[in-house]
Every structure is written in C-alpha cells, then in structure tokens.
C-alpha cells in the first residue's frame, strides 16, 4: 500500500501545460496591445489607461459578452483551431459597434477537458488576430482545465469586451426615422449562429466534413469553418462619415435578420426588407435542400448572407455605399423604413423579439 496522496496532476489538471500555452500565445497577444495597455501578459487583471476618456464630453461605456456556440464542434472535428477566434471576436465586438462605440479591450475564457498547449495557443492566436482587425486590445484571459466535465479534445470559448461612445454620437432607435434606408452588409458565411441546426442537417444527410461540395468549391468542413466577418473597424469608419448619415446598425446573429433588425427600430415604424435584393450564398441553400428546412425556420435561425445592416438617412445612401466599396465591404440597398399605419395589415410582421418593445420588420418578395 502506498502512502502517496492524490495530486492535482493525477486529478487531470496540468498547470505546466497551461504555462506552456501562455508562452506560445503571448507574442500574438502583445501585438494587439498599444501604449494604453499596461502590465502585459500574465497579470491577475488587464490594465487599460482610460485617461483618453477626457476628450469625451459625456462618455458612455458599452459592454458585451458572447461565445461561439456549437461551431467549436466543427473546429474540434477538423482539428483546426486558429480561426474560431474570429468567430468569438465578431460575436462580441460587433455587438458594441452597433451603438457606435469604439471597442477598446477584450478578455477571453477557454474551458477545456485537457490543456494541449499548441491547441490553446492556436485558439488565442486567432482571437488576437481578430482583435487586430477590430482595432481592439486583448488585455487578458483565462484557460481552465475541466477534466471529467469536458472530454480531452473538447473546449468552449467565451469573451467580453468594453468600448466607449460619446453620448451625442450614440446610434440606435432614437435616430431612426420614416424614410430611412436599409443597407445590407454581406456576411462571410454562416458566421457563428445556427450551428445546432446546421450540424443536425448534415448528420441527417450523412455528409462528412471531408466531403467535396461542388457548390462551395471546397470541402464541407472548410465552408462551415469560414471565419465570421469582423465588421468593427469598417462600421466605425462608416458611422464617422457624416455624409453617410448612419442612424443605427443591427448585428444579424441568433434569431436571424428580421428579429435583430426590429430591435433597433422605434415603435410605430416598420422596415420592409426585399428578399430579391440579394442572392443567398450557396451554403444556406445547401442547408435548406439537405434538411428540407422551411424558409421561415431558415430566416429565424441563419443570417442568409446579411451579417450586419446599416440604417441610413435617404440622402446618405450613395455616400454610404461608396464608403463601403472603398472599404472592400460588399453592400447593397436592402429595403426601407416607413411609418406603420394603425390600420396596416400586421400579418407576417416580426416584432417584440428579445423582450424589446420596438418597431417591426416585414420580409417581402422571393430570393433570387
């Protein structure tokens, strides 16, 4: 009989592996950190010099937190982990940009069954690369090993970000008026929502991730793992262009286009979205056909190619489209905003989503 007691390592937690992961990722993290970040990697708390707030008359802090959802299962199945960070940053930071806030810094959290340093470092490198695109400092994070709760190859990621906006520049329903125009900003693909539906469809069809799909010009797995487009810098540039007259943004995530657009409209207004104004990318069509998914379910779950919507003044449309073109961001006129008459037909309207009492959205016509 041995007198040796149980150790943390014997329980399945390898603290040395965590330290190795930090060594592998720290250069990528540092590249996101400008002079406003103090202390560097490894502190108990990330420090950010907020003295620049003095230039604001009435600074409002904006904050958001989110995860990636079951898209991580695709990354794990393919053993590709350096793109999932774009999904995390996009889901978190672009919610802040919706109100016109500049995202200042972000933190991340990774829970895993076993710390594999190279894998964790790949995830964080992706987060850092996406933060560079967004102009956001990655000031800290945490990796937690949960043996017995998660499998050795399983992990989940989450993050939180903080930004700031001048109160006078706040975007949202208060700025939206009848006559405003909707501009769709193209998605890069599925982004990070609806993967429970997507995975159920491909499992039902018996398709493997390695399957070459003619419509995609690549494998199914490569298509599904396409990183979320990070809009932050482009949307801020568009909002700062006075000629574009940006009044509001909506980030098309869980719930689809109509449900999220309704959240940024004031009561009494209705946004009419013309389905015929864009061509739905192939991945959404494949999901629909493989699973026989009803159109309503698709629209209530997936972005269908529209990742963000800008609501702009009617006189700002040309300037907004020109700015998007200069930024290399595909954009088009998606619809318009009108008053909702008291006697209007309310069938087919989407309203009252996410617990918000706001405007309404109607989708019309058929997709191309």
- Based on CA inertia axes, which overall geometry fits? globular
At the fourth level of CATH, the homologous superfamily of the largest domain is: PurM-like C-terminal domain
Record field, number of beta strands: 15
How many domain regions? 2
CATH class assignment of the largest domain:
Alpha Beta
Average pLDDT figure:
92
Order of helices and strands: HEEEHHEHEEEHEEHHEHEHHEHEEE
| Residue share in helix | 25-40%
The residue ranges in which pLDDT falls below 50 over 5 or more consecutive positions are: none
Query: Whole-number radius of gyration?
Result: 22 Å
Portion of residues in beta strands equals 15-25%
Q: Judging by the overall fold, what is the CATH architecture of the largest domain?
A: Alpha-Beta Complex
Write up this protein.
The chain is α+β, with helices and mostly antiparallel strands and 368 residues long. The protein has two domains: 13-50 and 57-166, 2-Layer Sandwich (60s Ribosomal Protein L30, Chain: A), CATH 3.30.1330; 173-364, Phosphoribosyl-aminoimidazole Synthetase, Chain A, domain 2, CATH 3.90.650.10. It is 31% helix and 24% strand. It is built from eleven helices and 15 strands. Strands 10-12-7-13-11-15-14 form a seven-stranded mixed beta sheet, with helices on both faces. It has a four-stranded mixed beta sheet with strand order 3-6-4-5, covered by helices on one side. Strand 4 (102-112), helix 4 (117-134) and strand 5 (137-145) form a beta-alpha-beta unit. It starts with 14 loop residues before the first helix and ends with a strand. The mean pLDDT is 92. Residues 177-339 form the PurM-like C-terminal domain.
